[in-house]
Write a structure and sequence with these properties.
heterodimer; A: alpha/beta; Transcription Regulator spoIIAA; Pectate Lyase C-like; 2 domains; 15 strands; B: Rossmann fold; eight-stranded mixed sheet; globular; Septum site-determining protein MinD (chain B); MinD_FleN (chain B)
Chain lengths: 236, 264
């Protein structure tokens, strides 16, 4: 422990000209920009220095929200904890967000899964279950008794006659679109609905189901731009 | 090497055994060497429908267990020289035979016969797996009822996983007047849902019940519309392009002539 303290003192002397932590005030509170080229130890030292000594007068007073910008530095959850521990020493500083421009491969993979777009050519028959992470485009029918589940949106270019569950891990923004909407049952996130409840059976033509205030509704495809305009840019 | 055709449906009571019996007989009448295999162990009745019950000595389970040779268990139908039956056991249950044993038996039969027609039990459990094990082709039988079509759909899904071509569909016991009034699913509705090739539509016909009780396959009756339908199915299986019979019993020229001469 003592050895790094010595090193850090030395570093501090060399780099006093350029600060490792730049603090800026915004409308939302304080933003801490962390240098991403120095070592993590240097960063901790400078942060500690600023919090405990040099900037004490600015950093006291009423509750202030703090956002940490880590730049291109990857911080493990433990390292993030170290940073927040230092900041929390000041009772009035509340960590709001911790942002980095980089993520780990695992996170990237999970993120990619979330935004994958699968295309399936298949007739989902009675008793068959099709389950996917992300969005799903099914070129084929879903027959009565067949089940399709995806964490994202589900688009069916065929007859939807069975069970379809979009956003099954809780995405309430997910939609279900089908060329022919005649389902046994539809589910989006936790909401279960069947024809004849909030919406009637297909009037023919392409339609989509979505959630509005926890209620499932079905609309003609040409309403989609009004109801989910973000769908086009959200992914891919 | 012959072809193994499994006749299956998922749901019970839609006419698997009737279809097996009539299809087997029709193929035999068309000159093919046919062996029918009843895989409904514990609930056999293909032998009853064929009127061969009293001739059973050995059965499928005996063959599988090796207590007799395959040849000893085969019952030759005396009415049709090309037709044989391998009956199921009535005392055991479905687990008495394994899919591997079934495959072996059907392979042996295929060496000797042109067609091996396998009558599948209802359900999707071991009995079904046994029946499809040796088959190269499947015929799915359904009736124009929602529940039967649903089960047929399930069965087609299961058959897709087997190493065989697209199953073919027989729609059984269609009642034209109900379809006409919209009280029964029509052929189009069923095909739209199941999306497989149709190989025949069999009208509901009292002759079928009568002949089953007499132990004579309905195809032997030339009056019966169902018999014509079954014979057409057999011809289609042999690759002939036979148009579908019109379902409506329309007063065609033939009937008018018959009426004119005072028949019926």
């Amino acid at each position: 422990m003592s050895s790094w303290r010595m090193v850090s003192v030395e570093v501090k002397q060399v780099t006093t000209a350029k600060s490792k932590v730049t603090i800026k005030g915004t409308k939302e509170g304080l933003v801490f920009f962390m240098d991403d080229t120095c070592s993590f130890e240097e960063l901790l030292t400078d942060l500690r220095e600023k919090i405990e000594h040099s900037h004490q007068q600015i950093l006291s007073g009423p509750l202030i929200r703090v956002s940490l910008k880590l730049g291109k530095r990857y911080c493990s959850p433990e390292q993030q904890e170290q940073l927040t521990d230092i900041i929390r020493q000041k009772g009035n500083l509340v960590i709001h967000t911790i942002d980095a421009d980089v993520i780990s491969k695992e996170e990237a993979f999970a993120e990619r899964l979330k935004s994958t777009f699968s295309i399936q050519v298949h007739t989902v028959r009675s008793g068959q279950v099709l389950e996917f992470e992300g969005d799903l485009l099914l070129l084929g029918d879903v027959n009565p008794g067949g089940t399709v589940r995806a964490t994202g949106n589900i688009y069916i270019l065929g007859n939807l006659r069975g069970y379809v569950h979009a956003g099954f891990k809780g995405d309430t923004q997910a939609i279900i679109a089908a060329a022919v909407m005649a389902p046994t049952q539809l589910r989006i996130a936790d909401v279960i609905s069947k024809p004849g409840e909030e919406w009637a059976s297909s009037s023919g033509g392409t339609e989509f189901a979505y959630l509005e205030d926890g209620t499932m509704l079905v609309a003609k495809m040409n309403y989609l731009p009004r109801i989910r305009p973000e769908l086009g840019e959200r992914k891919h | 090497m012959g072809i193994g055709i499994v006749v299956t449906s998922g749901k019970g009571g839609v006419g698997k055994t009737t279809t097996s019996a009539n299809l087997g007989t029709a193929l035999a009448l068309l000159g093919q060497k046919v062996c029918m295999v009843d895989t409904d162990i514990g609930l056999r009745n293909l032998d009853v429908v064929m009127g061969l019950e009293n001739r059973i000595i050995y059965d499928l389970v005996d063959v599988a267990e090796g207590s007799c040779r395959l040849q000893q268990a085969l019952i030759k139908d005396k009415r049709f020289e090309n037709l044989s039956l391998l009956p199921a056991a009535q005392t055991k249950d479905k687990s008495a035979v394994s899919p591997e044993q079934m495959e072996e038996i059907v392979t042996q039969l295929k060496r000797e016969f042109d067609y091996v027609v396998i009558d599948c039990p209802a359900g999707i459990e071991q009995g079904f797996r046994n029946a499809v094990a040796g088959a190269d082709q499947a015929i799915v039988v359904t009736t124009p009822e929602k529940a039967a079509v649903r089960d047929a759909d399930r069965i087609i899904g299961l058959l897709e996983r087997e190493k065989m071509g697209m199953p073919k569909l027989v729609i059984n016991r269609v009642r034209p007047h109900l379809v006409k009034n919209g009280d029964m699913l029509d052929v189009e509705d069923i095909l739209d849902l199941l999306a497989i090739d149709l190989v025949g539509v069999v009208p509901d016909d009292d002759h079928v019940i009568k002949s089953a009780n007499q132990g004579e396959p309905a195809v032997m009756n030339h009056e019966s519309r169902a018999a014509i339908a079954y014979r057409n199915i057999a011809r289609r299986l042999l690759g002939e392009a036979v148009p579908l019979q019109p379902l409506e019993q329309k007063a065609g020229v033939f009937q008018k002539v018959r009426k004119f001469f005072g028949f019926k």
